[in-house]
Give the backbone structure.
Amino acid sequence: MNQSLTSVGWREWVALPQLGLPRLKAKINSGTQTSILHTFLIEPFEKDGRTMVRFGVHPHQHSNDLAVLCEAPVIEQRYSDRDSIDDVETHYLIETDLVIGLVRYPIQLLLSNRDDMNFRLLLGHNAIDRRLLIDPSASYLLGSPDEELIKTSHTLSRQD
């Protein structure tokens, strides 16, 4: 067993500091490949010749009282059929830092407007692979994300 793995419960407190989200509940879901952030008002735009996306997040589970507006560069656009009647939905993939417990690293997130999600963030296989060891019988093993790691600036590159 790899000793560098961080043990986590099936749900944990995390931060997405580059998006201005210092604390939100995440469900750790090893059965999903791509991590998903529940968003609203998803709007693509161009900035300095680069495709960007602006979107809103309600960081508190089961509440829409607080809204945080975010922006991030788009890595990729994905398309999915919402149903079988020519209704194609565009999803934007972004990269941002995740802080979970005492670790901070870049992850990719698919932005999705899914009101039926119980958690604002699902951490899929791409965010937990080779980093986290899941204890499905536990919750919130790591407590709140480390404040110093949230404040630490980190420049992302494709090589990270």
The helical segments are 125-128, 147-151.
